[in-house]
User: Fold this.
Amino acid sequence: MAQFFQAKKKTLSGQAVSLTVTGMDHQGRGIAKHKNKVCFVSGALSNEIVKAKLTEDKARYCTAKILKVEQASDARVKPFCEHYHQCGGCQLQHLRLDQQLVEKQIAVSQLFAKFAKLDDMAWQQPLLSESSHYRRSARLAVMYDKAAKRMRVGYRAQNSKQIVSINKCPVLSQVFDDVFSQFDTLLNSHHELRSVSHIQLCQADEQNFVILRHTKTISESLKQTIIEIGLAQQWQVIFQGESHLIEHDHLPMPFYRLPTQQLKFEFGLENFIQVNAKVNQAMLTQAVDWLNLNGDEQVLDLFCGIGNFSLVVAKCAKNVIGVEGVSSAVAMARQNAQTNQIANAQFHCFDLTQTIEQAPWFSKELDVLLLDPSRTGALAILEQLPLKQFKTILYVSCDPVTLARDSAIISQAGFSLQKIGLMNMFPHTGHIETMALFQRR
Assistant:
């Protein structure tokens, strides 16, 4: 039998060191030097001196967790959430909000310099929303705690499967303020609810949904009890059982409106929508402004989802082709085009990681490219597209590393970065959402 060498993990036995933090990375961690290696320090801020516990020692870098702040940054503030130091949902509540944006912008600039060799960044003003109660959707973790002999409802601890029991979440829409306490009581009062694996929350424009995912049958009488408790809180409680189907045929379809564009978007509860409604509206308005369409353009919108960008852009362009890999989202995009009486937008279901050689939706007449991929980016499709046929590319990103990587391909194809701006979709977290506009040279 062949034997393979496996390097032993280096244990650090809780070693504590003093570190001088010189900056922050794109995940919101402090950056320091330890024994000539870069050290990423969770919880540390730029220009701080901290005592930290080394947690990982790799060949080229190490990681550490802050134990004590020996010299604090002027931008350090007291976190406003009681669960902040245990919950993994937010990472930056200890940093003043305006400085969060400064650090994120610096991090994106450094990634562009590294991957795309671009130093001249035409930064625009960031898109903002309220810094609390901005989330209209969230997923709550549920698990039976054998040691405590009770169900726990909350969020995962950072870098852990452990669940932190939450009383209230100050970044979640206030309509869900009592969801943690209500379901903590419910789940611990009925043995058959131990089969609940998670709870999905979604605030639509006229309804608030609570979806209970469960792996075993729940009696109809108990379901009705939970539904009535939900209605008293203005929640529509929906059950998603062993079949994985969401039982909501009796309810009106969820929707959100874009007042500026006078559009209505219906969506299924399994479909992706942006969690921050205010930033979503501002993002779409900015996209139209940056593209500056004159009505003659033919736009290719890749990773189009339910048509969030496609239908907005269709009001200003000659034609829009939307492409998305999730069939249920494509069906909703088509329905939304019909609902809004938009005839110049067509939608196709296609796996954008596959070859487009025979793709029926692609044509040489397309001259504007819009990209809104997942965190993995758009590398597979950018390597195939004849980019030189486009005059403009608008890239909407939820991961700065893949944006910087993909921007190198766009730049090499003869495009210049004209505008770039942060969209603060997730205040107080390490998530970085960015919009970048490229024009063909």
In short: Residues 137-203+208-240 form a domain with the OB fold (Dihydrolipoamide Acetyltransferase, E2P) fold (CATH 2.40.50.1070). Residues 1-9 have pLDDT under 50 and may be disordered. The chain has three domains: 16-76, 109-130+258-440, 137-203+208-240. The chain is about 20% helix and 30% strand.
